[in-house]
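Onboarding guide, step 5: your first structure request.
Type a short instruction followed by the sequence, for example:

Predict the 3D structure of this protein.
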Amino acid sequence: MTPAPGEADSGRMALQLSDRRARELPELRYEPTRKRVRASSGGKVFGDSREAVLVWEPRRVVPQYAFPDGDLRATLRPAAPAEVEEHPVSLGSSRHVLDPSTPFGAHSAPGTPLTLELDGIVLAGAGFRPEDPDLAGYVVVDFTAFDEWREEDEPIVSHPRDPFHRVDVRRSSRHVHVEVDGVTLADTKAPLLLFETSLPPRLYLPPSDVDFSRLRESSRETTCAYKGRARYWSAEVDGRTHPNLAWAYENPLPDAAQITGYVAFFDEHVDVTLDGERIPRPVTPWS
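The system replies with structure tokens like these:
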């Protein structure tokens, strides 16, 4: 018997939302946005829409924007399927996804690759028309093919933000000790804990509590849609180099302003003791 509205179903088990999202990873997913979205290249606005949608192809964890046909100013023509390499990673529990470094051209849903052309600027394979009735009349576009993106009048970087993704930073008095190969790299009782959806917590440590004599600045830089641009350090321990082991955001985006200048380590590659207890190395795309 179906419960009446407002009544509980005593035979139904509670649903853990993170498990539900994980089960949906193999599916083509989308979500409308109310933001005005613009994509430009070479000073030309290719797309300008108030009816864009976010689209996740199967096994993708990062969304792309899709524009209605009428909001694209470019000429569209079919493109040859791209010969690109997928970068699959495991998130544990038999969950296999495509690392965000997997190129846009590695499509995991049926559809037609498209080239976009506007005033002599040709973006080969930068569009994709999914064969799905819910996305009829929409073209998914490659974020990296354009040199400027704006939501309303604000520039965005790296990729569109996931509306179901949060980043929360919290001050803590937990005792954090970081070492590699038995050598201490950091020790603090004033960390910042950064909690990010679907990822293990990250420990951001005051630079005064990090042993920079063991670190060498790296040429690596990365960009995060939620935190901004990060710089990296490698660790030198007993003649062995551990590349790009630590990072910091010197000028983070406003939502992550608290972590300015604080240093994080890849817990996947160092040994972390938290309040005297060694924590297991997490399994992530950076393992």
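Each response can be followed by summary notes, for example: The mean pLDDT is 93.
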